[in-house]
Amino acid sequence: MNTNRSDSWSTADDLILAETILDHIRNGSTQLKAFEEVGKKLTRTAGACGFRWNNTIRKKYVQAILQAKQLKQVKVNHPKKLSTQQLEDEFNINSIIRTLATLKATHEAKMVRIHELIELLKQVKSNSDQISAENNRLRQLIDGIPPMTDEEKQGAILNLFKEVNLLLKQEATLELKSENTG
Asked: What are the CA-CA distances from residue 159 to residues 150, 166, 167 (Å)?
């Protein structure tokens, strides 16, 4: 089964459609006039051309449409009669200047952020140095404590249990006194 229609749109047809419409936009004409002109070139109806443009092709030419509209504005606002090529050259220079200004602003913003990050890194390094110095001080304290034998460890643990037991008895005594007085 052949899925290609005899009246299907070719890549060349799409290109002719797009260029004709963009030319009309640049020259301040309407899309309807563009559809009529391209319809005659491609032996299609203006409606078919409009449908193809709006449903398929237009999405691929968003940037070109924007540039064509800007070029039309330059033509409308320009006091001299210049050729389309001269206007496109002027438009391109203005576009380059705007792009460079945007890049400059972006660069400056990134440089500010880089300086902020450098300051943050300095603070982190300072904190790291302080932590390292404290770590070394604590190591020296630990190294200065003589090692304990197993008997000394057991004795220390036994003393801790005795202290805990004494504290528990004192707490119980205080609770009894509190109940008796209250």
From this structure: 14, 11, 12
